[in-house]
Structures are given as C-alpha cells and as structure tokens.
Amino acid sequence: MFKYILRKLVALLPKLLAMSIILFFALELLPGDALSRTMPPDQYQALSEAQKDAAREALGLNDSPVIRYFRWLNQIFHGDFGYSASTGQNIGTMLAGRLPYTIELSFYGLLLATVIGLVLGFLSAFMKNTVVDYFCTSISVFGISLPEFFFGIVFIILFSVHLKWLPSGGRMPVGEHGFFSRVPYLVLPVMTMAISLTAALVRYTKNSMLDVMGKDYIKTARSKGLRETTVSFKHAFRNSLIPTMTLIVMRLPRLVGGSAVIETVFNYPGIGNMALTALNAGDIPVVMITTMTTGVMVLLSSTLVDIVTAMLDPRIRLG
Amino acid sequence: MQEKEYILRVQDLKTDFKVGRKTVHAVNGVTFDVRRGKTLCIVGESGCGKSVTAHSIMQLLPPNGMIAGGSIDYYTPSGACETLSDYKRNGSRIRAIRGKEISMIFQDPMSTLNPVYTVGSQIMEMLKKHEKVDRAEGKARIIRLLGELGIPNPEIRYDQYPHEFSGGMKQRIMIAIAMICNPTLLIADEPTTALDVTIQAQILDLIRRMQKNYGTSVILITHNMGIVVEVADDVAVMYMGRVVEFGSVEQIFANPMHPYTKALMKSVPVLGMNKDRELTVIEGTTPDASTVFTGCEFAERCESARPECFQRFPKDTVVEAGHRVRCLLYEEGGKSNG
Amino acid sequence: MTVQKKKTSLAKRNWQKFIRNRMAVVGMIGLFIIIAACLAAPLLTPYDPTFINPGIRALSPSSEHLLGTDRLGRDIFARILYGGRWSIMIGVVAAMGANLLGAALGCISGYYGGKVDSVLVSIQEMLSIFPGTLINMLCIGFMGKSVRNLLLIFTFTGWPGVMRIVRGRILSLKQEPYVESCRANGIGGTSIMFHHLLPNTLGPIIVNSTMNVAGYILSEAALSYLGLGVPDNVPTWGNIINAAKRLDIVQTLPMLWIAPAAAICLFVLSINFFGDGLRDALDPSSK
Amino acid sequence: MKKLLAMLLALTLMLGAVPCLAEAGESETPLKLQWSQAIGIDTLFESPARDQQSLYPYMVFDTLMYWDGTNSEHVPALATEWSNNEDYTEFTLTIRDGVKWHDGETLTAEDVAFTIEYYIANPNSSGARRFQYVEGYDALKNGEAEHLSGMSVEGNVITLKLAKSYPLFLSGVYSTMILPKHLLGNMAWADIDSSDFWKKPIGCGAYRINEVSFPDYFTCVRFEDYWGEPAGIKNVQFVSYQTGGNEAAVAAMINGDIDFGTRQLITDRSIANNMIRQNADLKALSVNAHNVRCFVFNLNQRADGNMKPDLMKKEVRQAFDLLVDQQTIASFYGGQAIDSATLVNPNAFEYNTDIPYVPKDVAKAKQLLEEANFDFSQTIDIAYYYNDQTTADIMALLTQDFAEAGVKVNTYLMEGDLATLIYTTCNYDLLYLAGANSDAEQSAYYFQCTSWGTYTFMGQLEERTAMFDELMNAYNTTADAEARKELSWKMQALNYENAYMLPAYVLNQTVMYNTAAVEVPETALEAGGVNYCWSQWKMLK
C-alpha cells in the first residue's frame, strides 16, 4: 500500500511541473511588465524608469526564462505568488484566507455526495423495482436536470427563510472560528454542491451493483449460505465501488468548478468566487493562479480517490 | 431404506426462465437420483439444462428463473428429508443447507472468487458461517486443507488475493471453499472446462480424492464423456432440458441405448478406445431453447427417427434395473414408467 | 449487397432494442415534443418573446397568457418556446462541435500512436484536470459574452471526454484482424481511420453527444447565473431563469422560474432517458 | 473497509481542526450589519477616499461637519467653526481640540491638512474633485508640487484659498473623513491605499475596530474617548456578504441575522416589500437622495471615429427624448424611482416645475426624425456600465421603443477601466449615466457637465458651452438660494429645449432596519446626508 501511494505521488510530479510551466509562461506572456507582478502596483508606480531597471536587475528578471522559472517555483514554495493587479495584495495571502475553505467545502461535498450516492444507489439496486428504487431513481434524475444555483436559492428559501434552521450565507458566526460553530454554515453549500454528483452516483452505483450482482463470485457467496444482506453488502457493494470511484475521479473537476457558482450563491468566500471576482476586476494574475490552484486541488484529490480505490481493490494496489 | 441409499432425489423438475415476454422451459421434467457416497455425472451439450438443474438444486437461479414444478428432495445424514424445491430462494432454510450440506464448484475459477478479499478470508467466511471455530483453529484447518489440495506454501497463499493465483490454483481454492465444511453433497458444475488439459486431470483427481477421504457424494456436470468414464458411478444424459438416458456408468457405456447417447459416445474420444473406431459428429445443431416441440426433441437430428417420433413425446422406459431411457424405440420393449 | 442488408438488420435490431426500453421511448417522445414545440413556436403563440409590454406586467397565468407574463410584460410561454430554440441550438451545436473535434483527435491519437498520441493525451489530461466551469468562465471573461464565443468555448473545452472514449475504442479496434487486412491490401491510413475505424466508434460518440447536449444546457444556465453566459437580450432558458434569481421574484412571481426550470428539467430528463436508451441499444454487450 | 472508514474519519477530523479556537462571547447584544465594499477582493478595508458606500467609514472615521437634513444646515463635528470671505474665495475651518484617535494620539489640524492633500494626490481617490478650486490643486494632483499651495495651517485653524469664487465649497468638503497623519504621513501618496494601516484602520469616530477576520467579518466597539456623545450601542458586528449575489444577505435580514440594511442591499423597493411581507418587524425608510440616471449624448468624439452627425440636430435629440419611456423605466424599480422631467429631484427646492413631463410619443418622434432627415440606416450605440438585471431590462425596453420609431439601437455593457471607456474612448452615441448630487448641489448635473472638464464628450461643444457657461458660473458664485434656484430653472429649461441630456429617473434610496432588534433615528436617516447620529441608536434586546 505504502509503495502504491508513493508511486502515485511520484506520478503527480510531472503533472504539477507541467502545470507550473504553463502557468509561468502564461504569466510571462501577459501584456505588461513582469516587474509589476513582483511588487504591489502602487510601489511599482512610484519607481522611476532607472529604479525599475535596477529592480529588474536585482530581481533577476533579465535572466534566462529557465533560471527565472526555477526562482519563481522556489517563491511559490515559500507562498509568494506575486501580487494582485486590482488590490495590490499578495496573492498568497488572499489564497490563504480562502483555499482551506474551498477545500473544506469540496471535501465535505464529495464526502456527502459519495455517502448518499452510494447508499441510495445500493438501496436502489438491493430493492430493485420497489418504491425505494423508484424514489432513489427519481432523486437521481431530478438532481441532474436542474442547474445547481437553482437548488441553492431554493435551499435558502426553504431552510433559511421558511424553516429558519440554517444561516443563508457566510462561512462562520462572528467571533467563532471553531469547526462546530461553522457546521451550520457548511450545510447548505455542501448540500448544493453534492446534489449533481449524488445524482450521478446513485445511477452509477445502481448500475454497477446490478452488474456485480450478476457476477459468478456472488453465486459463490450465495452458495456458501450467506445472508442476502451479507452477499449484497460485503461481496457486491465493495466490488461495485471500484468502477464508481473512477466516476468520482472523472467528476472531481466539475465538483470543484461548481464551487464558483455555490460560493456565489451562499456568499461563501472561497477561491471559485475569488476567480470570478478577479475576472470581473480584470485581475489576470489572480485569475490564473486561482485556476491553477483548482487544477492542483483536482489533481491531488483524484490521487486521493485513486488511493481509496487501491484500498478497495487489491488488483490495483498490488498490480 | 431409500433414505439411506439416496442422498438426493430429483423428481420431474421443471425450471422456467422468463426472457422478455417469453417463457423458456430450460429444464422440462428431469428425474434422477444421487446415491450416497457415489458420483453422478450429468452430461450433455451446452444449453441442455444441466447447469440449470444444478442451480435449481441450490436455489441459485438468476432472478428471471424459477422452479415451475417437480420436487428436489435432499436426505440429510440423519435421515431427514428436506424438500429443497419448496424452500424460498435465499431463505434461511436453504441457506442452512448451502455450504454446510451441499456445496458447489463453478465452471470459471477466474470469476468465482471475489477479487477484493484474500482467499483465506473467503474460505474462512464459509467456515465461520457454518461452524463455531476460533480464528486460529480455523486458519490452521484451512491451511491444512489447502496443503491437502496441493497448494504450495499454504501459509503464504492464505493471505494472497485471487488475482495472484493461476486458474488451476483458483479452482483448488474453490474446492477448498466447497469442502471446508465437509458437505455431504458436492455439486461441481463443469469444474474443469475452463482449465488447461493437464490441470483438468489434477482437479478431477482432487475431487475424487476428496470424495474418497470425506465420503462426499458428488454431482459432476460435464460435456466430456472422457471425464464421465473416469469418475462417474451413475450417468444422466440430458438433451433439451430432459434426461434422455439414466443409468450406472457400466450400463451406459456398455449398452448405450438412446440414439443421442450413442452419438455422444461416438463423437468423443474415450480413453482406451479402439484406434480403428472413428469419431463422428452429431449432425445438425441444438435447437433454440424456446422452440416448441410436438414430438421427441432429438428426432430432427436422430438417425433412427421414425415419423411417429415427430408426433408424440416419448415416455421414460426402464430397460433394466436402474437403467432408464426416453425413446420411442424402446417403449414397446420395456415397461413404461410414465 | 450483403453488407448493406446486414447493416439494416443491425439497425433494425438496435431499433427494436431501443423501442423495448419504455423510458427511452418516453424520452424520445418528450424530446420530439419539446423540439417540435420550439420550432413551431410562431404557430403556438401569437406573442413576440422580446416584446416589452409595460401594460401587462407580472400577470398570473390565464387563457390569454398561458404561463403569465414576466416583469416586463413579455409572455412567458412565448419566451420559453423561443428560448428553447436558443438553448437547444447552443446545446446541440456545442455538443456536435466538441464531439467532432474529440472524435477526430481521438482517431488521430489512437491510430497513429507514438508522439502524436502522447502529446494529444497529455493535452487532454491537462485540460480535463481544470474545472470546466472555471475554464469556461475565464474564456468568456477574456473573449466577451456572445453566443458564438460560448459555442467556441464549449467546443474547445468539451473535447477531452470524447477523445478519451474514441481513442480507447480505436486502440482496441486496431488489434482486430480486419484492420490488418486493410493495411495489407494497401488502404491508406486516413481511409482506414475514417472509413473503417471511426464508424465503429459512432455508438459511444452518439450517446456521449446526447448526454453532452443536456450538460451544455445546464452549463449555459450556470454561466448565465455568474453573468458570463450569453448576452442578456438572447432569451435562453438559462437567461430566463437567471432573470428570476432575485429572492423576492422567486417568492412572489413563481411562474418566472418554475416555467424555465420545468423546461430545462423536462428537456434534460428526456435527453438523458433517450441517451440511456441509445446506450443500451447500441451497446453490443447488452441484450 | 474498516481501514477505509478510519481513513475518512481521520481526514474529516483533520479538516475540522484547521481553524483556530473560538473567542469568548460578547457581553452585550451586538448590532449586526451587512458589509461589502466596492472593490472586489476583501483583504483590506477600503479607504474612505474610495468608498463611502458601506457603513464602516461613518463609524470609524469622522467628518469635518455633519449635514442636518431636517434643518438643511451643517452642524459642527471635527470642525467647530467655519467662515468665508465675502466673495467666497477663502474659507477657514477651526478644528476641534482634544479629539483622540483610537490609538490615543490627539487629532490636530495637521491631520486635516494631510487628509485634504491625500484626497487630492491619491490617484485612486474619487473624492478629489471637491477641492478642485483650491489654489495649487492641479499641481498637487499632477505630482508637480508636494503640498497644496492654497492651504495653510495655523494652530488649529486651516485656511483654504480658492482660485475662484465658489459659495458651495463647504457643501462638497464637509463630508471629508479625516485620516491620521501620524500613521500614514510617512508614505508615498500612492502607497497609502494598500498599506497595512487598512488591515485595521484607526480613526477618531464613535467606534473603533476591534477584531478583524477577513473575509468573514469584523467587529467594532464603542470608542470610549470619543469627543462627542458616545454611541448608543456598544458592540457592532459586520458580517461580510461580499462575494456574489444579494440573495443570502436578503435572506439573512429576513431572518433577523442582519439588523440594518443599507442601500447596497435594498436596491429595489420590491425587495423591501417582499422582506416586510415575511418579517413584519422589518421597516423600510425612504432616504432622500439625488441619484440621477440619464442618457447623455456624445457630441464630441469617438475613438473609433464613428460619430453620428445627426445627433448634432436638436430635433433628433428631442425625438430621442420622446422615445425614452421614463415612466416605464422608473416603474422597474418598484416605486423607488421617480420619473423626473429634469435632472433635479422633483422633491428638491430647485426643481423646475414649469418643464412639462415628456411622455413617450413614437409618432411625434418619428415625425421629428423625418423632418430632420435622420439617417435611419445608422445604428445608435448606447453604452451602460451596470450589470444588474434592471439595467438590462431598461436597455431591452429602450431597444424596443427606438425600434418602434425605426431607429436601430445597439446597447452594450462597458467592462474594464470605466474611466477611460467613458471619458477617453467614448465609443458610444448615448451613455446611460448615473450620478449622485448632494442636497446642497441640487443642480450639480448641469454644473458637472460644463465645468469639470472630465465630461469631455460634451464639454467642448461650443454651442452648449456658450449656452451654459455663464449661467453655471453665476450659479456657482451665488450664495443666495432663491437666486440659485432661478439660475437652475433656466438651465433646466435650456436642457429641456436642447435635449443634451435626457433625464431617465431620480432614484431614491431605501434602508431597512429590524424594529424588534434596534432603535434608529429615523428622521435623521430619512433626511439623507451623512449624519448617522450613532448616539441615538439603541439595541432593544
């Protein structure tokens, strides 16, 4: 297992490297002076041409792109992502206030979608052609038929305005950063985020379960005299999870991308929203870096899901 | 007396499958007995209903299949009679029998083992289900059995996953699963079909040895007459969902009566067969399972078919003690059974 | 001649398989009705979807205005029908664009292999790492809001999925003996690729395209919500529902969002059922 | 399976542990407010020189004077006395003694002088123009001088010399929020807005900022050393509803999670009505305001050279006036907008009641256009810069109404650097323009468009300059209200005749508060201006 994880992590490196190269040269190719992205814009404006030249020399902006790339990479590792063109803030600082929360949102969204999707999918297959099955199937078709923001607004009206159970937006109550005080603020965005993935998972898990239920080893399990629940859960369900995991990996970008919409609906400061705000402000460095960050997020989380898959399937782990 | 002699009696078993809106009679009135401690071979071409018969006994039919008639009686060692055909599919009564009393080996060892669990845990599951043993004791027992089944390094193999095993080894594991609880009846559904020829012999040998060591009765399903002659005590020849001939191995091989059995014997090389005997092919193809017949199912391909054969169904005819045949040719000669 | 005959019989068998699937047929009929209604909009409603009539604002449904009117006095029913034309057009054209591009690239990648393949595959991998919503957002942000840009962007960002499918199929088909024999008979690469391999991947491409149509309609709605969809004066379903996103409108004028939401929902449902049916019918392994 | 579950559980807990420990609860019920600011990404507070939209500057900083809307007069705040010479070219302000900054330092006249220079010299400042007549303004703004030559400080008295007579000077200057020189004085003007000071700004207002947790919230507490009457509420919480739509904030207000909603939240009266329907404790106040929306002809230049000579004809412009359906446009705001015949608020003193309201009349417009030989094949470009739904609706209406008369119209949303697009590029024929006037400058729109020089798109039109300059000068140099009104009437009439700017509507503001949670000085708020009277606010729970 350890070996497998290590292999997976090593395989990440070239991808991350490629992404960083794309980002670096995309930023390089942006119109304007590269120097302006290394310092707050007002500081930059205050410099005379001679000072700018000196600063370029001092910062090594006249060096070859390769050297600059590695220097830039080193800065990134130290949390220095350059400066926003619209607010003059350090992008690293801006990310620090938002990225963990988007990760949190996406992670719980993924977790909720996975749990509910798998459970409903399992029930739907286990109780095929019963009311339960039809209920689960209807949920799943409904979930993929409407845009996410729409669910968000409906949730606000339902759970926040009418039932007054949950806050309508924001990330935390004033003065309390603790996890448990943040939970109520997470519920609605997480639910909204999970909907479309849940719907997809219910369908997929059901099909996968039905497929697995026809496999020979299910017959073997039954021939052992095991209970039907044991057969379904221990033998069929775990096997049906493996293709489902692939689906999750493929849907991850969509989940993370959905954060832009969901964070907007719920006024949840996160990076999807940051990208949107920066885009409206024409702040290209921020836009690029946030987009890259989501890419890295997706990459890391797919690796995580791959590892989970490997835990489920010895053939992958040992193969 | 019967209860002591027989372990399983199948009477006029009918199993139907629903395919779309049509119903297919996959097994259409099958009758045979399995003698205690003996091996019954069910032979026939693929699609003749032998697997369905085996699955019917275990109540392991797929959701669209169901037992439509007849009875399956199983006699436990204590002499009690369990009518398996009446039990609810996956119900607690049939589950108490499965694995413990009757266990089964399937055709394709590549897909019969769950890929995500170690083989040890899959055998352990069976053992734990039916016997109260602690883990260490169970493990020791399993490892002993694995060794007995000719698996090298059973201690290491115990913790390995199915994909780390070859086909033959996997089938040994299946046998281990089937045998770990010392069942009284083992159903082997074409256990060697998917294996290399050399492995086939080893596996058959194992089954035979297990039967000898543990006194298990065996139903062996095969399409290979060569296997039949080697392992069988009794033989049931099936064609289109019916048993066309039933008898002891000597009776069948010395005196095959049904034209299909005869053709079957000619088409397969049998060990020790005369070199000058020619292999022949049964002409025509097996009809579609949903075909509706008005007479003998084999008549179309039968060399000795008479016009009458196409018009009415033949009846089971007992030609000598323990030897039945279902063919119009013998109906007048023997006494009718139906 | 025989090939021709076999083809039709295969199509016939697939058709029968499709017809047997009740949900698929419901989906197909639903699709047909929606598309026909949108195309026949002028026959079904006398109103102009963009005509602002301040005298009849925010009316409830009546016999005159089947679904009522919106805040500018436009007939909602007319807007839904005409908006459907845009939405479906965007979905279909974008899906076609993305799938054609993906299929072509997949073919090239799978057939030629080697460097071409590894370059295309790494581009594909890179592109599919990034969240589609964000990439679409960025592109619209830089290129500006217009239907043409939206279609271009959907095409540009949508191809990796199809490419992966087609490439996989081509790779396995390449092993088939008949490709060998084609090559032995001196048939050129392009010809083999487009005449012998591509038709065999049509099934998955068609299924993927139908599903994509639904996806693009939803994506368009999401982008509209972020203010980065099509221009405001184009009445797509996404834009119609987006104009009703304000809390007070959602609560007091429900028809403004129920109608477009129902339209999107029905269309996406229909196309999903239809696509599922197609997949089952075209998948040779299913019965 | 167990391993898997354990791993997931561990991950959940790990993520849960990310944030820090909770702080001790507040002792008194705080006032809960919504907070968002104009610039996008909130890592810093915005300087009041840029933003006076949200409530925080009014709490944390203090102004030179307050505007008493009820009595229509300035009242002393940081400036205790003010005076001017006879011809309104020199103003003196006496700064209050003993005012403390939140960090304990004492406020001096130097701070005020520094702030005025900062407002002028900071390139991002939107409040510079109020000082434009002060001598040396241009030199400081362009970076040619370090200080404002027309300003002198003597003890606690500041003297400002104007280059020309301007009686309304103080109406522009009074709301300047004073910043601490001792914390900002050592920086370059351009650096100030992004300096660390704005992570937790220090002012001399009734509240000081206590805890800042961007981008989620910040809290304020009553400043006990405040020079004036202490604030009535001890604790204030600002919750950020910065990102995205207003729906979550509106829902929060309905739920009582926000006690007071500013006009940023209540953009439309129908939003307020819907909120009150669901929470009867909420109350909407109509705030007197002078937000004018109008359509301005570009008669000067377009960067793409695609000028429309037809627009130079008075008749064409009048025809367009007939096509703008003000009544319908105003009705889009659910009662918040008032359709006005001129660019002055109909409720205002200077409003010219003689000017007839111009209803939509397509036939007459068409006739006028034909008489003027209008080229119907050209497309008139209308630019706008608000991206809300109502603006989109207005543009749709406009397109339709113009099309009825056969005029082809292309409306487009300007995005990017608006200042350049509006004032320099000018690629439009009509601009949908918005602006706010103060109470004292009721006719500011005419004033702005002739004198600022920024509105180059019409400022250089000779015909117009000749018409307005004299009147505008007279208006600016007259202190007598009645006389000013007369001048304003003339200008309104002139604009009506020549149709240079087509009035669309005047937008009032709505604020809301939760009557169950807080007591607010309603009259003061409704009167408008910038006097929030914090001492009169009280929490009810």
CATH first level of the largest domain in chain D: which class? Alpha Beta
How many H/I helices of chain D? Answer: 18
Major sheet attributes of chain D: 7 strands, mixed
Could you tell me the mean pLDDT of chain B?
A: 82
Low-confidence stretches of chain B: 334-338
What general outline of chain B do the C-alpha atoms trace? globular
What does this structure look like?
The complex is a heterotetramer of chains A (319), B (338), C (287) and D (541). Chain A has 319 residues and is an all-alpha fold. Chain A contains 14 helices and no strands. Chain A has helices at 2-29, 41-46, 49-59, 65-77, 91-96, 99-126, 131-143, 148-162, 179-213, 216-223, 228-265, 271-280, 284-312, 314-318. In chain B, a hairpin with a 2-residue loop joins strand 1 (6-19) and strand 2 (22-35). The longest helix of chain B is centred in the middle third of the chain and has 18 residues, at 197-214. The radius of gyration of chain C is 22 Å and the shape is elongated. The chains are: A mainly alpha (319), B alpha/beta (338), C mainly alpha (287), D alpha+beta (541). Chains in contact: A-B, A-C, A-D, C-D.
Any descriptors?
heterotetramer; A: 319 residues; mainly alpha; MetI-like fold; 2 domains; globular; B: 338 residues; alpha/beta; nine-stranded mixed beta sheet; four-stranded antiparallel beta sheet; 13 helices; 13 strands; 25% strand; disordered C terminus
Summarize the structure.
By secondary structure, chain C is mostly helical. Chain C is built from 12 helices and no strands.
Question: How would you summarize the topology of this molecule?
Answer:
The complex is a heterotetramer of chains A (319), B (338), C (287) and D (541).
Chain B: H1 2-5, E1 6-19, E2 22-35, E3 39-43, H2 50-58, E4 65-75, E5 81-83, H3 92-97, E6 102-105, H4 109-112, H5 119-130, H6 135-148, H7 154-158, H8 167-179, E7 185-189, H9 197-214, E8 217-222, H10 225-231, E9 234-239, E10 242-248, H11 249-254, H12 259-267, E11 316-320, E12 323-326, H13 328-331, E13 335-336
Parallel strand pairs in B: 3-8, 3-9, 6-7, 7-8
Antiparallel strand pairs in B: 1-2, 1-4, 4-5, 9-10, 10-12, 11-12, 11-13
Chain C: H1 2-20, H2 22-39, H3 41-44, H4 76-112, H5 114-129, H6 132-143, H7 147-174, H8 177-184, H9 189-225, H10 237-242, H11 247-252, H12 255-282
Helix pairs in contact in C: 1-12, 2-4, 2-12, 4-5, 4-7, 4-9, 4-12, 5-7, 6-7, 7-9, 9-12
Chain D: H1 2-16, E1 31-35, H2 56-60, E2 65-68, E3 73-76, E4 79-84, E5 90-95, H3 109-121, H4 137-141, E6 151-154, E7 157-161, H5 169-173, H6 181-184, E8 207-213, E9 217-222, E10 235-240, H7 247-254, E11 260-261, H8 269-278, E12 282-297, H9 314-323, H10 326-331, E13 337-338, H11 362-371, E14 379-384, H12 389-404, E15 408-413, H13 418-425, E16 430-437, H14 444-451, H15 456-459, H16 462-477, H17 481-498, E17 501-514, E18 518-519, H18 522-526, E19 538-539
Parallel strand pairs in D: 1-10, 14-15, 14-16
Antiparallel strand pairs in D: 2-3, 4-5, 5-7, 6-7, 8-9, 9-10, 11-17, 12-16, 12-17, 13-17, 18-19
Helix pairs in contact in D: 7-8, 9-11, 14-16, 16-17
